[in-house]
Amino acid sequence: MNILLNTLSDPVWQVLALVITLAAPVLIVAVRTRDVHASEQQKRRDTLTVLRVWLATLLLMSGVAVALHLPDAAPLRTSSTAPSPVPTPSPTPSPTSIPTPTPTPRLARSITQVLMTFCDAITSQDYQTAWNQYANSLQHTHPQPETFAAWRKFTRCIIPDQSGDPSALSVLTLTFANGYTDRFRRSGDVDYRLTMGVEDQAWKITGVCDILSEGCFAVSWG
């Protein structure tokens, strides 16, 4: 039924059918009037011949139109029987391992305790104890005799009031003896910043620098 409806609604078929239908009466009139001497029986036979040709042409044209519309109907029947897709199971995510944090090493002494030991040793002129607070890397780059000679210029070492400032945690104040100054011609109380590092599970002094407004500059003895 759908093929027949598609054929009848085809504009090309409609135009051709209209032309043939309109041409049939014209042909009938033409064959009946072409010979005025023809009998009525002859005219009737010619009229039937024209009608047979018209009907045969109309049927042939309809058959061709139906054949052309068959491929259009085939995909509709095929798509109606297409199988539904089979759902595939989603992969189960594997559990991820949670990294275990590296434990913080427990050191024997705090930074403050190391600085107090160093400072007390400078004040009491126990230079070997002060030297032991240095890291091996600092001891290798600063010979012991020259370092002890530099320390003899100081008469006192104290840890200043930090006032809750974390940046002042490793600052020491050393007092020059009378007649001694540093390379910047400073005398009396001079502040130094000590850099700390961990060596063999213990805090050690890894560097010493002069505190100036322009920055912190390494000293000859640390």
Summarize the entry for a quick read.
Among the domains are: 7-31 and 39-60; 109-216, Nuclear Transport Factor 2, Chain: A, CATH 3.10.450.50. It is built from seven helices and five strands, in the order αααααααβββββ. It has helices spanning 2-8, 11-33, 40-80, 111-123, 127-132, 136-141, 144-151, and strands spanning 154-158, 171-176, 189-198, 203-212, 215-218.
Order of neighbouring strands in the sheet with most strands: 1-2-3-4-5
Overall average residue pLDDT: 83
Overall structural class, as computed from helix and strand content, comes to alpha+beta
> What is the C-alpha radius of gyration, as a whole number of Å?
57 Å
Q: How many beta strands in the DSSP annotation? A: 5
Shape category: rod-shaped
CATH class of the domain at 109-216: Alpha Beta
Strand content: 15-25%
> How would you sum up the major sheet?
5 strands, antiparallel
Order of helices and strands: HHHHHHHEEEEE
